[in-house]
Design a protein that fits this description.
Elements (H helix, E strand, L loop, with lengths): L12 E6 L2 H11 L3 E5 L3 E6 L2 E7 L9 E6 L3 H10 L18 E2 L5 E6 L5 E6 L1
Parallel strand pairs: 1-4, 5-8
Antiparallel strand pairs: 2-3, 3-4, 6-7, 7-8
């Protein structure tokens, strides 16, 4: 039988990079509504509904070609409209049929939309 380190009993910490902490602070706090817990020379720390999100200060961000953070929402259309009203553009991807709110419906029925933070990191909302 394989042994494991037992991390299932511990909270996860999420990380994302920023090269512009003032813009990241405004985006994550004022646009997304996360509580700013602390800020220092290394990171902005937010409370994302009980999960620690460390927005780490880095000289340059190399955005991944995939989603790095996502939120499970009860109503994807309402969340997408709130993002749009806050000035956040939802991403459109060729070959993926997305509705007028930018939401793609997966074959399993999940409703997903993507957007970017000020550093170009891809984020998502999903109604699963």
């Amino acid at each position: 039988m394989a042994t494991h380190a037992g991390f299932g009993a511990h909270a996860i910490v999420a990380f994302v990079g920023t090269a512009n902490a003032p813009k990241a602070r405004l985006f994550y706090r004022d646009v997304l509504g996360l509580k700013l817990v602390s800020e220092d020379d290394f990171a902005l720390v937010f409370d994302a509904n009980g999960t620690m999100l460390r927005v780490t200060r880095v000289p340059n961000v190399q955005p991944a070609g995939y989603t790095v953070l996502g939120w499970s929402v009860k109503d994807a259309a309402a969340a997408a409209r709130r993002l749009a009203a806050a000035g956040v553009a939802l991403e459109r991807y060729p070959g993926m049929p997305q509705d007028e709110d930018g939401i793609w419906t997966s074959p399993a029925g999940g409703r997903i939309a993507w957007f970017k933070d000020p550093d170009g990191n891809t984020l998502s909302i999903a109604q699963l």
